[in-house]
Amino acid sequence: MSFISVFDVLGPNMIGPSSSHTAGAVVIANVAHKLLAPPLKKVDFILYGSFAKTYRGHGTDRALLGGIMGFSTDDLRIRDSFRIAGQRGLAFSFTPNQTEQEVHPNTVDIRMENEAGQVMTVRGESLGGGKMRIVRINGVHVDFTGEYAAVIAVHQDKPGVVAHITKVLSDHNVNIAFMRLFREGKGDTAYSIIESDGTLPQGIAGQLRDNPHIRDVMIVQS
Amino acid sequence: MEFKNAKELLTLCRQEGCPISEIMRRRECVLGETTVDAITRRMARVLEIMRQSATIPLTNPVRSMGGLIGGEAKHLAAHAAQKKEICGPMLQKAITYAMAVLEVNASMGLIVAAPTAGSSGVVPGLLLALQENYHIPDSRIMDGLFNAGAIGYLAMRNATVAGAVGGCQAEVGIAAAMAASAAVELMGGEPEQCLSAASTVLMNMLGLVCDPVGGLVEYPCQNRNAAGVANALVAAEIALSGVGQLIPFDEMLSAMYRVGRYLPAELRETALGGCATTPSACERCGCCGR
């Protein structure tokens, strides 16, 4: 959504009390949970800036935990997310970090571990009005908002990988809205993030993995 | 169907011969590539949530997460039930509903940010009270919401609705400008009168700071939502009487934005000034000692 909709003004429909500290936190964690294969076993949240100072009074902790369990901003279960996580056998912790100052005021690091033992860290920033952006995956700087359907491909930084990705997308008639490549260094691990208009066909993940340099593919529907 | 400012909005209203709500509806359909049916369904859900959040605490009060508010809407409703109100039924109901929504918001209940969570009581407060007093059908109240959406959109596009950027005048101030404009359309005013009312609100709330106790969306936010409703009603009354304003909405909006940027950081949502640092607030909050 590239224009300001009437539902951006009268919205989001959300569990209070704060669009940045509650709704935005839900959205960050909700997008993060789509990046790692379920079921999740353990999740640790490190809170920075204003998040670290006021997370209890704003229910940021319940919001993050709700989001990581797939709840949306208007889901009343957010209030009970501690209990629900307990029932689901999901271990969780919150650690405020008030010493780190070089971050956006509403930042969270999410460290997730699934039953298969895979670990992933995601950093998100809550920008206000329920908007957010993901700025790091596993320590690599990235930038996407979750407002568009996105393909996130983890691959070796090698020639031809991007051509392969765009070929698969074009074969499925996917129109690319934004495309960016982020890498740890030349030839190292890279993240290609492609945001598209509309819904992404599920079959594309398998075809994208056909390229030997692509290690993992995540599909995040908007 | 796009408009960049209030001047262009008024031109569109004149060209198409329709109210602000209808222009906003058409804009949503065109730019959102969707249908009138789909956006009507979505807006009906918005209205449903607004109504629930404005009425539930009248009978079921809840304590806020931070413990600073809870139960105010029930007190106001009881006061009115005893026929002791001094605001008159219209304004009394509107402030009761506005404060109720903030109570729901602060207790992790379901609300519609309008345009923000901290200012979410103003638009439903005024529109639902108007609906009851003048027996307005839901379909017309939704016209009011589209009208309010147009004002909020202009504020998001050309200024800000974030307390951290522009202070409370950008949150409750814009919410009240939205509510005033919607009220004027619902009561039969012309598009020019809607924008004139919105301009009046910004003028009258200019400079209001954002100074939440403990950094939480509770206090004085709840009182300010009630004050926003009152400001909206005053502005709508002035506009509907035919009194115009010297300063048009676009100019008032940019004046509000400039004033917001003059505000020191202490008075923009950081809880470092204003109400937040009064001795009583500090004693109650105890945040700094943690």
Polypeptide structure, described:
- The mean pLDDT of chain A is 94.
- In chain A, helix 2 (19-33) runs parallel beside helix 4.
- Chain A is α+β, with helices and mostly antiparallel strands.
- Chain A is 26% helix and 36% strand.
- In chain A, the strands form two sheets. In chain A, strands 3-2-4-5-6-7 form a six-stranded mixed beta sheet.
- In chain A, a hairpin with a 2-residue loop joins strand 6 (131-137) and strand 7 (140-144).
- The N and C termini of chain A lie close together (10 Å).
- With 290 residues, chain B is an all-alpha fold.
- Chain B contains 13 helices and one strand.
- The N and C termini of chain B lie far apart (53 Å).
- The mean pLDDT of chain B is 96.
- Classes of the chains: A alpha+beta (222), B mainly alpha (290).
- Chain A binds chain B through residues 1, 3-19, 22-23, 50, 53-54, 56-59, 62, 74, 76, 78-79, 128-130, and chain B through 2, 24, 27-28, 31-32, 39, 42-43, 45-46, 49, 64-66, 104-118, 120, 123, 145-146, 148-150, 152-153, 156-157, 161-162, 164, 178, 214-218, 287.
Care to count the β-strands of chain A? 11
Q: List unreliable stretches of 5+ residues of chain B.
A: none
Rounded average pLDDT of chain A:
94
Instruction: Encode the helix/strand succession of chain B as letters.
Output: HHHHHEHHHHHHHH
Beta-strand portion of chain B reads under 5%
How would the global form of chain A be characterised? globular
